[in-house]
Write a structure and sequence with these properties.
The complex is a heterotetramer of chains A (319), B (544), C (109) and D (228).
Chain A lengths: L14 H32 L16 H30 L6 E8 L2 E5 L5 E3 L1 E5 L4 E7 L4 E5 L4 E5 L5 E5 L5 E7 L12 E6 L1 H10 L6 H11 L2 H4 L18 E3 L5 E3 L2 H9 L22 H16 L11
Parallel strand pairs in A: 1-5, 4-10
Antiparallel strand pairs in A: 1-2, 2-3, 5-8, 6-7, 6-9, 9-10, 11-12
Chain B lengths: L22 H5 L4 H29 L10 H37 L7 H24 L12 H5 L4 H28 L12 H33 L12 H35 L6 H14 L15 H28 L9 H24 L1 H7 L3 H31 L5 H28 L13 H31 L41 H7 L2
Helix pairs in contact in B: 2-3, 2-4, 2-15, 3-4, 3-6, 3-8, 3-13, 4-6, 6-7, 7-8, 7-9, 8-11, 8-13, 9-10, 10-11, 11-13, 11-14, 13-14, 14-15
Chain D lengths: L2 H6 L11 H36 L1 H10 L2 H26 L3 H31 L2 E2 L3 E2 L5 H5 L4 H37 L9 H25 L6
Antiparallel strand pairs in D: 1-2
Helix pairs in contact in D: 2-3, 2-7, 2-8, 3-7, 4-5, 4-8, 5-7, 7-8
C-alpha cells in the first residue's frame, strides 16, 4: 500500500495559508474536545455515586462562569471569521495578466480551451508560477471544478459564467474532481491538472495539437450554420455585412445607435429580434440551443476578427 | 436500582396498553401514547431500511472501483439513504416518539391539544413513506436528498416526482406535530407549572416545534415547484428560461439547515433530562440552557447560505452568512459547558441512558467544532463537497441525534413499556455504538481534507485505506444498533416490572404509574417545586 | 379570542373601506408613478390586510400571544425574502466573470 | 376519570381540556399557528416571485398587461364580500343565531363559487391565447410577443408564477368551500351554541387568510408597473 497520506499537496500559492487556518481550527477542535472529554471523565470518577441515597448539594449556576464561556467562544469565533474572510477575499480576485483559459463542464467530462486554440478533454496543462484564471460554464447541469492540491473549488453553472484562479507552485500532475453531484458518472468526471515548467509548457503549446485558432474555428461555424448565406461581405445579402462592424456604432430600426460589442453580437445570435439593424427586417432565426457555448464563443471571436477588416462596400440601405 | 424479581404484576392495573385490544384500538387511537408507539414502530422500520442502504454503500466503497453495484445504483443508494434517514427517521424520531409520549405527561395534561390532528399526522407520515417506498421499489431516485436542479428537474430520468411528493406530504406530518406541541405547552400546563419550572426537554420540544412549523412549509413549496418542473420541464429553476438553479438552493436550505436543528435540539433536551437525573443535580444554569435552545431555533434560520459558499452565491452574501453561522455555534457551546458543569459535585451513576448522554456530549462537541471549518469561508472552499462534510454532519446526526434518541428510549423505556431492560447488555451496546461510530466517521475527516469528493461511486486508489477503515467501523456500528432492538423487545415480555419512578427522576411523567393509564393522571397534578429538585430536602417531600 | 361581540355596523364599515381601497389601488395603477406604483400597490394591500386582520379576524381583542405568533410569521417571511435578496442584490458587485474577454453572460440571472 | 365526571362536562368539551374557555383559546392559538405555516408556505412563492420580478421587471410588466384588470378587480371585491359574510356568520354563531349562521355560511360559499367561476374564465382566456407554460406555450402569434421583446422566456416565468400562485390560492379556496359545507351541515343540526362555536371561528380565520393572500396577489400579479 502506498504511504498513508494525511495532507494533500500544497501546490498553489494559497495552499499554505489555507492550511494554516485549517490547522488552527483543528487545534481548537482537538483542544476543546479533549477538554470536555477529560473533564467528564474526571467528574465521572471523582463524583461517582457512593451510596444509593446520596443527595448532592444543589448548585443553581454561576453568572461569571456563563459569561466566561460565552465570551471566550465569541472571541475565538470572531478570530476565525476575520481570518477566514480576509483569506477568502484575498483569493477571490484573479491578479491582472493571468493566463485566461475557458472551461466547459459537460455531463461527465471537462473541456478546456487555451487562448492559442489548444483544446483538451479532462486535462489542463498550465505553466508553473503564472496565475491562471478559469472562466467556466456548464452545458447541462451544475458541476464543480475542484483541485484539492490547489485548495480551489467553484461550481460551474449552466446559463452563467463563474470563475476561479490559482497560481501553481509545484510541477506535477494533480487531481481534478467534479465536486457537485451531476448524475450517473459524476465519479468519472475527473481529470488532471498538469503543471509544467514554462518552457516545457511553451513546447507543449507549440508541439501540441495546434487545432486551428479560435477565429478559424469560428469561421467554420459561420459557414456551417448558414450565416454566410445572408450576411454577405458586400452587404447585398438579406442581413447586414459584418465586415468592420465589431466595435463600431450600429444604427437600429428603433433609431437608437449601439456599439457592436460582444454582448450585442451574442444577443443578435441568440435573440435576433431584440435589436434589428436599420433597413433590415427581423427575419433572422434564433440560434438559441443550436450552438454550444464553445461554438458561440468561436463565432463571436470570428466576427470580432472581421471588425478589423475594411468594409467592402458602404451598406446600401435595403428596404 | 432495586432489582425486582420477575414476579407477575400484582393486580391487572389499567394501563394505556391493556385498556383496549385489537388493531382498531391501535389504528384509530387518539391516545398520544399509542400514537407515539405507532411512530416508534414506523421509524424503526425506516431506520432499518436507511441503515441497510448505508451498509451496502460502505461495502461498495471498500474497493476503489466499487465492490458491489453499478454507479447508477450507488447514486440511488446514497439518495435513498439520505432521504429515508433524514425525513423518515431523524426528523420524526425524538419529537414524534418521545415528544408525543412525554409532552402531555410532562405538562400534566391528559393528552395533546389536538389528538385527532396527532393521529392525522401519523397517517400523513405513512402516506409520505408509501410514496417514497414506491419510488425506491419502482427503480429508485438518484438526485441526492438535496434534489438540486437542473439535474433533478430536467436531466434525471428516475422517480423524482414520486419522492418529491412523498417528502412534500411527510413535511405536513412534522408541521402538525410542531403545532400540537406549541399549543399544548402554551395552553395546557398543569397549575403551578410555570415556564421556568418546565423540564428542559419541553424547552427543547418547544424550540424544535418553532422550527418545524416555520421552516417545513418552505420545503413543501420548494419540492412542489420542483415536482412541477420535473413533470412539465418548464419552471422557475430552469436555466433555459433564465431561471436560477441557485434560487432552489436558497429555498431548500432555508428549511434544510434549520432541519438539522430539528434533529439535534430534541436530543439536547433528552441529554439535559438524563444528565440531571443520573447526576442527581439540577442542570447548571437552567435558564441559560433553556434560552439557548430557543436561540438555536431562531439563529438557525439565518445561516443557510454557508451551504452555498462555492456555488456562485455573491461573496458579500457569503460574508453575511459566514458571520451568522459562527454566531449560531455559541449557544451550542454554552450548552456543552453547562452539561459538563452539571456533573461537578454530582452523584453520578452509570446507567445506559447516562452512557448515551455522555457519549452525546463528546461526539456533539466534535461535530459542532468541525462545523466551524465550514462556516469559515476560506476552509469551506476546500472542504465543501468532500467527505469532511459527510463526517461533520454524521457526527452531529449519528453521534448526536441518534445517541440522544437511544439515550431517551432507554431512559423512558420503563415508563413506556412498564418493564426494565437488562442494564449490562445496554451498556455493552452503548460502548459498541460509540466505538463503531468513531471508527466509521473519524477517517472521513481525513478523507475530506485529502479532497475525496462525496457521492463518488468509485475513487482514486490512494483513498482506499481510509475507506476500508470506515467500512469496518460501519459494520461494528450496525451490530451496535441491532443489540438494543433485541433486548428492548425481549424486555417487553420478560423484563423486570418497573415501578413508577425507577430512576428517582423528577418530572410529572414519573409521578404517574408505568405504564401510565389512558388518562395519564388520576387527577391533574399541582406543581409547587422548581424543575430538577433533586436536592436533599425536596427528595423527602416527593419520597419514592 | 374573548367573547367580545363586534357590532354589525363595524363589519359593514370595514367592508366598505376594503372595497374603497380596492378601487383606489386599481385607479392608482392607471397613473404613471414609475417605481412608486409598486410601493403604492403594496401599501394599499398592506392596509387592506390590516383591516381584515384587526376587524374580521378579531386581532384587536386577541391576546398578546396571538399577535406575537402573527408577527413571527411576517418576521420569518421577511428573513426569507431579505437574506435571499441580499445574495441577488450583491451578486453584481463583484465584476461578473464574462466569457473570454468582455461578452456578457448569455442569460445573467 | 370516573364515568360520572365525564357526564357532567358541557357539550363539545374534549376530555383533555379543563374547561370550554381553555379549549377555545387552544383552538384559536392552533389555527393562528397554522396560518403562520401557511404564510411561510405561500411565502416561498412570494419570495421567488419578488426575486424574478426584480431580475426581469420588463417581462413581468409585459405579462401583467396581458391580464384582464377588470376581472381581477371584481374578483377581489367578490372575495372581500365573502369575507364580510364569513365574519357575519361567525358573529351570528357567537350570538347563538342558528338561522343567520347558516344563511351567511351559504352566502360565503356562493361568493366563493363566483370567485372560482371568474378565475375559471380567466384561465380559459389564457388557454385560448396559448400562454399556459408547460401545457400550451406558443406566444409567438399572441399579444405577448409584441409586448415583451426578447423576454419571452422571462414572460413564461411570469406566467408560471401566475398559474402557481393563483392555482395554489384556488386550491385553498376549494378546501375552504369544503370546510364551509361541513359547517353548514353541522350548523343546520344546531351543533354550535353561544359557548361552543370554535369550528366556525377556526374556518372563519382560515377563510380570511385565503382572502388576504388574494389581497396581495391582485396588485402583485395584475398591477405591475401600472397601465398607462
Amino acid at each position: 500500500m502506498h504511504n498513508l497520506p494525511f495532507q494533500p499537496d500544497q501546490a498553489s500559492s494559497i495552499a499554505k495559508s489555507v492550511d494554516n487556518l485549517y490547522f488552527f481550527l483543528t487545534a481548537i477542535t482537538l483542544f476543546f474536545t479533549a477538554l470536555i472529554f477529560l473533564t467528564i471523565f474526571y467528574f465521572m470518577i471523582k463524583y461517582r455515586r457512593r451510596s444509593p441515597d446520596e443527595r448532592p448539594r444543589p448548585i443553581e449556576g454561576s453568572v461569571p462562569l456563563e459569561v466566561l464561556w460565552t465570551a471566550i467562544p465569541t472571541l475565538l469565533v470572531a478570530v476565525m471569521f476575520v481570518w477566514g474572510s480576509t483569506l477568502y477575499f484575498q483569493n477571490s480576485e484573479a491578479p491582472k495578466g493571468s493566463l485566461e483559459i475557458f472551461v466547459t463542464g459537460k455531463q461527465w467530462m471537462w473541456k478546456a480551451e487555451h487562448p492559442e486554440g489548444q483544446r483538451e478533454i479532462n486535462e489542463l496543462h498550465v505553466p508553473l508560477g503564472r496565475p491562471v484564471r478559469l472562466t467556466m460554464t456548464s452545458e447541462d447541469v451544475i458541476h464543480d471544478f475542484f483541485v484539492p492540491a490547489f485548495r480551489v473549488k467553484k461550481d460551474v453553472l449552466p446559463g452563467r459564467y463563474t470563475s476561479l484562479w490559482f497560481e501553481p507552485t509545484q510541477v506535477g500532475t494533480f487531481h481534478l474532481f467534479c465536486a457537485q453531484y451531476c448524475g450517473a458518472f459524476h465519479a468519472g468526471m475527473i481529470g488532471s491538472i498538469v503543471v509544467q515548467e514554462p518552457d516545457a509548457y511553451e513546447s507543449w503549446l507549440a508541439g501540441g495539437t495546434p487545432g486551428e485558432s479560435i477565429e478559424q474555428a469560428g469561421e467554420k461555424v459561420f459557414q456551417a450554420s448558414g450565416c454566410s448565406s445572408c450576411h454577405l461581405s458586400d452587404g447585398t445579402g438579406l442581413g447586414p455585412s459584418l465586415l468592420g462592424v465589431f466595435g463600431h456604432p450600429v444604427h437600429l430600426t428603433t433609431g437608437e445607435t449601439v456599439t457592436a460589442d460582444d454582448g450585442y453580437i451574442r444577443e443578435s445570435i441568440l435573440q435576433p429580434k431584440a435589436k434589428i439593424v436599420a433597413g433590415y427586417s427581423p427575419i433572422m432565426p434564433t440560434f438559441q440551443g443550436q450552438l454550444t457555448e464553445e461554438q458561440l464563443n468561436n463565432l463571436v471571436a470570428y466576427i470580432r476578427s472581421l471588425g478589423a477588416a475594411q468594409p467592402k462596400a458602404k451598406e446600401a440601405a435595403k428596404p | 436500582m432495586s432489582t425486582a424479581t420477575l414476579e407477575p404484576r400484582v393486580h391487572a392495573q389499567r394501563t394505556y396498553l391493556n385498556a383496549d385490544y385489537g388493531w382498531k384500538s391501535w389504528l384509530f387511537t387518539l391516545d398520544h401514547k399509542r400514537i407515539a408507539l405507532l411512530y416508534l414502530v414506523s421509524i424503526t422500520f425506516f431506520f432499518v431500511i436507511g441503515g441497510s442502504f448505508a451498509v451496502l454503500m460502505r461495502i461498495h466503497l471498500t474497493e476503489p472501483q466499487g465492490a458491489l453495484v453499478q454507479p447508477e445504483t450507488y447514486n440511488k443508494l446514497f439518495t435513498l439513504h439520505g432521504i429515508v434517514m433524514i425525513f423518515f427517521f431523524l426528523i420524526p424520531s425524538i419529537p414524534a416518539v418521545l415528544g408525543n409520549f412525554l409532552v402531555p405527561l410532562m405538562v400534566g395534561a391528559r393528552d395533546l391539544a389536538f389528538p385527532r390532528l396527532n393521529l392525522l399526522s401519523w397517517y400523513i407520515f405513512i402516506v409520505g413513506g408509501a410514496f417514497t417506498l414506491y419510488s425506491a421499489i419502482a427503480g429508485g431516485v438518484d438526485v441526492g436528498w438535496t434534489f438540486y436542479p437542473p439535474y433533478s428537474s430536467i436531466y434525471s430520468q428516475t422517480h423524482v416526482t414520486a419522492v418529491a411528493v412523498g417528502v412534500f406530504i411527510t413535511g405536513f406530518s412534522s408541521i402538525l406535530t410542531g403545532l400540537n406541541f406549541i399549543v399544548t405547552i402554551h395552553k395546557m400546563r398543569a397549575p403551578g407549572l410555570t415556564w421556568f419550572r418546565l423540564p428542559l426537554f419541553l424547552w427543547a420540544m418547544y424550540a424544535t416545534s418553532i422550527i418545524m412549523t416555520l421552516g417545513t412549509p418552505v420545503l413543501a413549496i420548494t419540492l412542489f415547484l420542483l415536482a412541477l418542473e420535473h413533470l412539465f420541464h418548464v419552471g422557475i429553476f430552469s436555466p433555459e428560461l433564465g431561471g436560477d438553479p441557485l434560487l432552489f438552493q436558497h429555498l431548500f436550505w432555508f428549511y434544510s439547515h434549520p432541519a438539522v436543528y430539528i434533529m439535534i435540539l430534541p436530543a439536547m433536551g433528552v441529554v439535559s433530562e438524563v444528565i440531571a437525573c443520573f447526576a442527581r443535580k439540577r442542570i447548571f444554569g437552567y435558564k441559560i440552557v433553556a434560552f439557548s435552545s430557543v436561540a438555536i431555533a431562531v439563529l438557525g434560520f439565518l445561516v443557510w447560505g454557508h451551504h452555498m459558499f462555492v456555488t456562485g452565491q455573491s461573496v458579500y452574501a457569503g460574508l453575511i452568512f459566514s458571520l451568522l453561522s459562527f454566531l449560531v455555534a455559541i449557544p451550542s457551546a454554552i450548552k456543552v459547558f453547562n452539561w459538563t458543569s452539571t456533573l461537578y459535585k454530582g452523584s453520578i451513576s452509570y446507567e445506559a441512558p447516562m452512557l448515551y448522554a455522555l457519549g452525546f456530549i463528546g461526539l456533539f462537541t466534535m461535530g459542532g467544532l468541525t462545523g466551524l471549518f465550514l462556516a469559515s469561508l476560506a476552509t469551506d472552499v476546500h472542504l465543501n463537497g468532500t467527505y469532511f462534510i459527510v463526517a461533520h454532519f454524521h457526527y452531529i446526526m449519528v453521534g448526536g441525534a441518534v445517541m440522544g434518541y437511544l439515550g431517551g428510549i432507554h431512559f423512558w423505556w420503563p415508563k413506556i413499556s412498564g418493564r426494565k431492560y437488562p442494564n449490562a447488555w445496554a451498556a455493552l451496546a452503548a460502548a459498541i455504538v460509540f466505538v463503531g461510530f468513531n471508527l466509521t466517521f473519524f477517517p472521513q475527516f481525513i478523507l475530506g481534507y485529502l479532497g475525496m469528493p462525496r457521492r463518488y461511486a468509485f475513487y482514486p486508489a490512494e483513498f482506499q485505506v481510509l475507506n476500508v477503515m470506515s467500512s469496518a467501523g460501519a459494520t461494528i456500528l450496525g451490530v451496535g444498533y441491532l443489540i438494543p432492538l433485541v433486548y428492548l423487545i425481549w424486555s417487553m415480555r420478560y423484563g423486570p416490572v418497573a415501578e413508577s419512578n425507577p430512576w428517582g427522576a423528577t418530572g410529572l411523567e414519573w409521578k404517574t404509574p408505568s405504564p401510565p393509564p389512558p388518562e395519564n393522571f388520576a387527577e391533574i397534578p399541582v406543581v409547587n417545586e422548581e424543575a430538577y429538585a433533586y436536592s436533599a430536602q425536596a427528595q423527602e417531600a416527593t419520597g419514592d | 379570542m374573548s367573547q367580545h361581540i363586534v357590532p354589525q355596523r363595524t363589519y359593514i364599515f370595514v367592508f366598505l373601506g376594503l372595497i374603497g381601497l380596492t378601487m383606489l389601488t386599481t385607479g392608482v395603477a392607471y397613473i404613471d408613478l414609475g417605481p412608486l406604483n409598486t410601493v403604492a400597490a403594496l401599501v394599499i394591500a398592506f392596509s387592506k390586510m390590516l383591516l381584515v386582520v384587526l376587524f374580521f379576524m378579531h386581532l384587536r381583542h386577541s391576546g398578546g400571544l396571538i399577535r406575537v405568533v402573527l408577527l413571527a410569521g411576517f418576521f420569518w417571511l421577511a428573513l426569507l425574502i431579505g437574506l435571499t435578496m441580499s445574495d441577488y442584490r450583491t451578486r453584481s458587485w463583484t465584476p461578473a466573470p464574462d466569457s473570454w474577454s468582455s461578452t456578457a453572460p448569455p442569460t445573467h440571472p | 376519570m370516573t364515568e360520572a365526571e365525564a357526564h357532567a362536562q358541557p357539550a363539545g368539551l374534549a376530555h383533555q381540556f379543563g374547561d370550554l374557555e381553555q379549549q377555545q383559546s387552544a383552538a384559536t392559538l392552533g389555527i393562528w399557528v397554522f396560518l403562520v405555516t401557511e404564510i411561510m408556505f405561500f411565502g416561498g412563492l412570494f419570495a421567488s416571485y419578488a426575486i424574478y420580478r426584480w431580475l426581469y421587471f420588463a417581462a413581468f410588466e409585459g405579462g401583467s398587461h396581458v391580464l384582464d384588470i377588470r376581472l381581477g378587480a371584481t374578483n377581489t371585491m367578490v372575495l372581500l364580500a365573502s369575507s364580510l359574510t364569513m365574519a357575519l356568520s361567525v358573529r351570528s354563531a357567537q350570538t347563538g343565531n342558528r338561522k343567520a349562521t347558516v344563511i351567511f355560511l351559504i352566502a360565503t360559499m356562493i361568493l366563493g363559487g363566483i370567485f372560482l367561476g371568474i378565475k375559471g374564465v380567466e384561465y380559459n382566456q389564457k388557454f385560448v391565447e396559448h400562454i399556459v407554460p408547460g401545457l400550451d406555450w406558443s406566444p409567438e402569434g399572441t399579444v405577448l410577443s409584441r409586448l415583451a421583446p426578447g423576454g419571452l422566456e422571462h414572460a413564461q416565468i411570469y406566467f408560471f408564477f401566475y398559474f402557481a400562485m393563483t392555482g395554489l390560492h384556488a386550491l385553498h379556496m376549494i378546501i375552504g368551500m369544503g370546510l364551509l359545507l361541513w359547517l353548514v351541515v353541522r350548523a343546520h343540526k344546531g351543533a354550535f351554541t353561544a359557548s361552543y362555536f370554535a369550528p366556525v371561528e377556526v374556518v372563519g380565520l382560515y377563510w380570511h387568510f385565503v382572502d388576504i393572500v388574494w389581497i396581495f396577489l391582485f396588485p402583485l400579479l395584475y398591477l405591475i408597473g401600472g397601465r398607462y
